[in-house]
Amino acid sequence: MAKYLLLKHYRGAPPAVNDVPMDRWTPEEISAHMQYMQDFADRLEESGEFVDGQALAPEGTFVRYDGEGRPPVTDGPFAETKDLIAGWMVIDVDSYERAVELAGELSAAPGAGGEPIHEWLEVRPFLTAPPTITE
Amino acid sequence: MDELLLRSLTPGVLGILVRRGADFAAAEDAVQDALVEAVRTWPSDPPRDPKGWMVTVAWRRFLDATRTDTARRRREALLDEEPAPGPAPAVDDTLQLYFLCAHPSLTQASAVALTLRAVGGLTTRQIARAYLVPEATMAQRISRAKRTVSDVRLDRPGDVATVLRVLYLVFNEGYSGDVDLAAEAIRLTRRLAAAVDHPEAAGLLALMLLHHARRAARTAPDGSLVPLAEQDRGSWDTASIAEGVRILQAALARDRLGELQAQAAIAALHADAPTAEETDWVQIVEWYDELVRLTDSPIVRLNRAVAVGEADGPRAGLAALADLDDSLPRHGAVAAYLHERDGDPATAARLYAEAALKAPNLAERDHLTRRAAGLNARGGG
């Protein structure tokens, strides 16, 4: 078993096929999309492959250490930052092929016109614990 | 209360319920209920006959669950039958459970989870924590696995090799959460090796014991990996090594060599060396040759290249490496090491840094990054 992160981008991924911003969808299309995501997560739980799923607000703040005894510096959001994460799902599956298959399903979530979005999702393997037997 | 004793009763009790006519899935649930009940009541009220107590409580739970089931009428004939009392052939029951839980119709992850629960007596929560998934996910994985094997009959012996693969996986994934999976794998393999006449089962047990013996030495206090050559051999568990060697020798004497015995033989040669310099690399290469013959695995050939590098010098190791596909996992790390030994720190540092990017786990990545950094610092690059 291996864990993979399915990463959804607000920005930074190549454009989707059905690339209509969500605020141009009908309310029913938005509901259908949400339902699809929920059903997908439920199916993964039933198949014993679900680990976690979270959505992120589009706007965040950059924070950095500013020296001993000083409060951290905050800045941003920066418009020039290319990559903007929208959310993720963590899955625990038997193979890389299965992870790709599931990412493909998730990318088929319906969008404008009830048609699949075909959005690009990023599949990233987790680093694991080291195996006990090495040589 | 002795949790291990309690858990060691699990497969025997489960076997008795199944033999009395309970279906596997319901019996397994009933035994889990009885385990929970035992944890609750035994500390204040320990039974005189723990196994008898477990059978009684589990059977009652099974009957309760069955009575509330919609299929009650269909099963009433079964309930009217008085269960046969008396001691059970625990070993046979246990063995059949191993086969069932490692059934080839299951995915490896399902087989691992089911084995840990039904044979190991771990709770779903413990297994979920060990594998870092939510309890609900693990519960589904286990109940799907039980459905998958629900039609498998328990009356024929299965394939020991599939069971060994599952136990190898449990051991090799190390441990997290509150369960020591490596120790659990050893416990379950020990029991299997006692129940089945199979040199590879002994080989796996020996392999586990020999690796487990080095566990304390494998990681530094900061969690970083310590390579075999740099380990404090004084902290190896000599009792575990002695047991592993003894079991391995008995298995090898039967002259039915298999992959696991050969792996254990290599581990034994490492364990046998008082210092890294005294390692018998020539013999280790010979065992790798056996392994190549048995498995024809490219990973084995890769490990063999390291051994050849030690036995015949880094140039020979690099020559052995040249025949292998460089997309193999850890190929870059091996190449880096051999170039370092060959006195080419610049190439080694570059290869270590590249290998770090491809490392499948954090400890290995950090280790490779440190090697690259160390060489770069010395080279002033």
TrEMBL record, chain A:
- In terms of domain of life, where is this protein from? Bacteria
Pfam families recorded? YCII
Q: Which InterPro entries match?
A: Dimeric_a/b-barrel, YCII
The YCII-related domain sits at 24-107
Q: Sorted alphabetically, which SUPFAM superfamilies does this protein's record hold?
A: Dimeric alpha+beta barrel
Family per record: Belongs to the YciI family.
Q: Give the protein's recorded name.
A: YciI family protein
Taxonomic classification, please?
Answer: Bacteria, Bacillati, Actinomycetota, Actinomycetes, Streptosporangiales
UniProtKB/TrEMBL annotation, chain B:
Does this UniProt record's set of keywords contain S-adenosyl-L-methionine?
no
PANTHER family per UniProt = BLL6612 PROTEIN, BLL6612 PROTEIN-RELATED
**The species this protein was found in:** Streptomonospora nanhaiensis
- List the Pfam families hit by this protein, alphabetically: DUF6596, Sigma70_r2, Sigma70_r4_2
Q: Which residues form the RNA polymerase sigma factor 70 region 4 type domain?
A: 98-148
**Is ATP-binding found in the keyword set?**
no
Q: Which family does it belong to?
A: Belongs to the sigma-70 factor family. ECF subfamily.
Q: Where is the RNA polymerase sigma-70 region domain?
A: 6-69
User: What is the name of the protein in this document?
Assistant: RNA polymerase subunit sigma-24
Gene3D superfamilies reported in the protein's UniProt record? 1.10.1740.10, Winged helix-like DNA-binding domain superfamily/Winged helix DNA-binding domain (1.10.10.10)
